[in-house]
Write a structure and sequence with these properties.
single chain, alpha/beta
Length: 335
């Protein structure tokens, strides 16, 4: 028996107007069949993309008065069904004590179902920034996707996915956004702050209610101050190098007087370059750009793996030759 306000359907399970005459095609799955699904046989996924359901009572009231305007989506799992999208609608149906609910039964894997749920919520803008970041991170960490795969699937730039995931992996920034009201755009700018300065900048941003532009200006100030300190502590290239003929003979003395090869403003240059490439998309790169970035990446790997302190040069010992062996060798080669 159908509950009051529950959508009706034809005997073959079709209904809801003409939502899916013969099913609907969606990216990533085959033909989806629209059926009336017993509510008690639907299981929610272990880690859904959406966790905060909002005002279910208001949605239930709307469904009571006007019916369900969009079916849920499920995938078959034996004689049961696992929800792939429509968690709020299912919760409202349970609140109304519906026996069945219209749903598309899709022939998809667990990964595909998770992506469908994520994409639907992104399209409907139903996810909070925290939920979105956790869902994207789930694809990367648990399901082994690359950043490029995630960005291509959810139709977001590589920089967007990277920033969103890294932002909510930082405990201080996550707390500032989720519990203390910092705008996401401001927090994303503060991702580039030096680790030793980040906590101070976060507190200052919260007190002064920084927007994205103010956070960017503050980071430039931090970089300028770091450059000034670096200039005071390390004369760098301004100090002429000693000619090799005048270099001290002792290794310890040479290390003490030789200036570093590290250029002034190096840290600032790295951060500026990092910000520059984080805004790029793969389609913006020319073949020359890609070749240059590959060469840079290769050199960065070598530099990162190199020891911070030069190792002592070790020469292998020369083989010892006895007089007897020398004589036998000469006799062996005598014509």
């Amino acid at each position: 028996m159908r509950a009051v306000g529950e959508p009706s359907s034809t005997e073959d399970g079709r209904g809801i107007g003409d939502h899916a005459a013969g099913g609907e095609n969606t990216p990533g799955d085959g033909l989806a069949e629209l059926r009336q699904i017993p509510v008690e046989r639907i299981t929610t996924p272990r880690r859904p993309a959406r966790r905060f359901l909002g005002d279910i009572a208001a949605l239930a009231e709307s469904m009571q008065d006007f019916g369900l305007q969009q079916p849920i989506s499920v995938r078959a799992d034996g004689d049961r069904f696992i929800l792939t999208s429509g968690m709020r609608r299912l919760a409202a149906a349970r609140l109304l004590h519906w026996q069945t609910i219209p749903g598309f039964v899709r022939n998809v894997s667990a990964d595909q179902a998770y992506v469908l749920d994520l994409i639907e919520n992104l399209q409907r803008q139903d996810l909070s920034p925290e939920e979105e970041a956790d869902a994207l991170g789930e694809l990367i960490r648990t399901r082994g996707w690359t950043l490029q795969q995630v960005a291509g699937t959810v139709k977001r730039s590589l920089a967007y996915v990277s920033k969103r995931v890294r932002l909510f992996e930082d405990a201080l920034l996550r707390d500032a956004v989720v519990d203390r009201g910092m705008p996401v755009s401001t927090a994303e700018e503060l991702l580039a702050a030096p680790p030793e300065e980040r906590a101070r900048l976060i507190e200052q941003a919260l007190v002064e209610r920084w927007d994205q532009g103010r956070a960017r200006d503050a980071l430039r100030t931090v970089d300028d101050e770091a450059l000034e300190r670096e200039a005071e502590q390390d004369p760098g290239e301004d100090v002429p190098r000693q000619p090799a003929s005048e270099a001290p003979q002792a290794a310890g003395a040479a290390a003490a007087v030789q200036p570093t090869a590290r250029p002034r403003g190096f840290t600032r240059a790295i951060r500026s370059f990092h910000r520059l490439i984080s805004e790029l998309q793969s389609k913006d790169l020319t073949p020359s750009d890609r070749a240059a970035l590959r060469a840079l990446f290769r050199d960065l790997i070598y530099l990162a793996r190199a020891s911070a302190t030069p190792g002592k040069t070790v020469f292998p010992p020369l083989p010892t030759v006895t007089s007897g062996s020398r004589g036998s060798k000469r006799r062996r080669h005598r014509p």
